[in-house]
């Protein structure tokens, strides 16, 4: 599905709430998508492009992008009752089961693309790592999501509530 335009009015800015990252806290067979971002004021997907620039013997500079390694940090990510993701991460930390940090499926939803079905990409086997635990008035567990680029393009029905991912036939 080639993106040719956004579902925004002319010169209308896309609101930040339309870019949503959600983590599967269920199973691969029965996914349950938990959006991340409650009480987080700012979070961006970092592309981390591996850029190679070469100037040849004629003085012409060529730039190539070899790969992108997407990641996104969420801070403070406060531990809250009902968060299955926080409970899973806490369990992994307590058991020191480090390899389990790399077994998360993550959705990157672009709610400003699409109408009844919103643009999304599902990354398999992503790494979700808590970076610390503590805080001053609440227990915070900031996390970083490392996207795998093992992705399937598709759509979701919504970016809140019960999210259902549907792969596109082009994936």
Poorly predicted regions: none
Rounded mean pLDDT score: 93
Please estimate the helix content.
under 10%
What is the percentage of strand-forming residues? 35-45%
Number of domains: 1
Number of strands: 11
CA gyration radius, whole angstroms? 18 Å
Which overall shape is indicated by the principal axes computed on the Cα atoms?
Answer: globular
Number of helices: 1
Distance between the termini: 9 Å
Helix and strand string, N-terminal first?
Answer: EEEEEEHEEEEE
Major beta sheet, specifics?
9 strands, antiparallel
What's this model, at a glance?
This protein has 171 residues and is mostly beta strands. It is built from one helix and eleven strands, in the order E-E-E-E-E-E-H-E-E-E-E-E.
What is the fold's blueprint, element by element?
Layout: E1 19-24, E2 33-36, E3 45-46, E4 49-55, E5 61-68, E6 71-74, H1 84-95, E7 104-114, E8 118-130, E9 143-146, E10 151-156, E11 165-167
Antiparallel strand pairs: 1-2, 1-7, 3-6, 4-5, 6-9, 7-8, 8-9, 8-10, 10-11
């Amino acid at each position: 599905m080639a993106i040719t335009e956004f579902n925004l009015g002319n010169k209308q800015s896309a609101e930040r709430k339309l870019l949503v990252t959600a983590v599967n806290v269920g199973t691969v067979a029965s996914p349950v998508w938990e959006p991340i971002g409650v009480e987080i004021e700012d979070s961006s997907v970092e592309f981390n492009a591996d850029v190679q620039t070469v100037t040849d013997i004629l003085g012409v500079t060529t730039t190539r992008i070899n790969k992108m390694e997407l990641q996104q940090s969420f801070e403070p990510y406060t531990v809250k009752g009902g968060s299955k993701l926080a409970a899973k991460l806490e369990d992994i930390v307590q058991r020191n089961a480090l390899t389990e940090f790399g077994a998360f499926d993550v959705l990157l939803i672009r709610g400003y693309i699409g109408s009844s079905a919103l643009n999304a990409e599902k990354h398999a086997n992503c790494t979700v790592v808590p970076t610390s635990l503590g805080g001053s008035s609440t227990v915070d567990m900031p996390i970083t999501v490392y996207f795998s680029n093992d992705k399937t393009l598709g759509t979701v029905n919504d970016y809140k509530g019960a999210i259902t991912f549907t792969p596109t036939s082009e994936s």
